[in-house]
Amino acid sequence: MRNSKKFTDQEIEELESLAVVEHATASRITYSHAFQVYCMYQYVHGTRPSVIFSNAGLPSRLIGPKRIERCISRWKSNPQLMAEVRQLDEEGRKPAMRDEIILSSLSEIQELNRTIITLQERIRKMIAHLR
Predict the structure, then answer these.
(1) Which domain of life is it from (predicted)?
(2) Predicted model pTM
(3) DSSP track, 76-89
């Protein structure tokens, strides 16, 4: 079954601005390998998928909860990806804290960008109304 959610041009632009997204189209998102490893590491250590994606700037309201579920399911069944996650554990490492800080900062920046866009649209409408 395919996702019925189609992304607008603005949403595609927003998705492609994220470091964790390699490419986005109206119907697909291609995630970076680093994000896949980071995501599955966090997942196997108890973080909810919606929280992981949201912290990376990919809230379920934007990409849809089913898309998140499918990613987790697909990545969980990828032996090579899960071997990388296990190797991090065996080495006593986890994806760099720096990456977590970057992902958190990216999420905040994305939210601020959405606010700026909304405010710019309001200003344009107010100016047009005044003319």
Answers:
(1) Bacteria
(2) 0.70
(3) HT-HHHHHHHHHHH
Asked whether residue 1 is domain-assigned, the answer is: no
Q: Identify the domain containing residue 102 by its residue range.
A: 9-130
Instruction: Answer yes or no: is pLDDT of 1 > 50.
Output: no
d(CA 1, CA 65): 14
The 10s digit of each residue's pLDDT in 61-109 is 999 999 999 999 999 999 999 999 998 878 777 666 556 667 667 667 7
Residue 121, in any domain of the structure: yes
Nearest CA to 38 out of 16, 58, 64, 20 is that of 20
Whether 4 maps to a domain, the answer reads no
Q: How far is CA 105 from CA 4, 18, 34, 89, 100, in A?
A: 30, 11, 17, 25, 8
Total count of residues recorded for the chain:
131
